[in-house]
Design a protein that fits this description.
2 helices; alpha+beta; elongated; single chain
Length: about 110
Amino acid sequence: MEQLELFDYRRDYLFDNKNQIAHWYDILQETKDTISYAEHIDPNKGYAIAGMEYEEYVDIKKNNLKELTYDQILSFLKNTKKEKRLEKYKALLKFRNIPYEADLFTWHNSDIL
């Protein structure tokens, strides 16, 4: 029997690192309707506010992409220094008049307390 793949969407890690203090990673991913870029920080137990996770993201609805493609976004992000990636990505979208949603999202993960 062949398994039907219902969610065959892309996900690319642009950065992934961890040490004794935290796990941090940057990811570009797509869903049926959205392309999202996010930078995550997950502090380890005993550091910062253990259990408090952080995600800063930029979401674009696919129907607002105009001529921009996932591969073009991925290439742009890969070729931008990590420290300036969010800022330059937002500037690119503004320049192309592409609406997006951006925010800093935090939540408490009681599993790592």
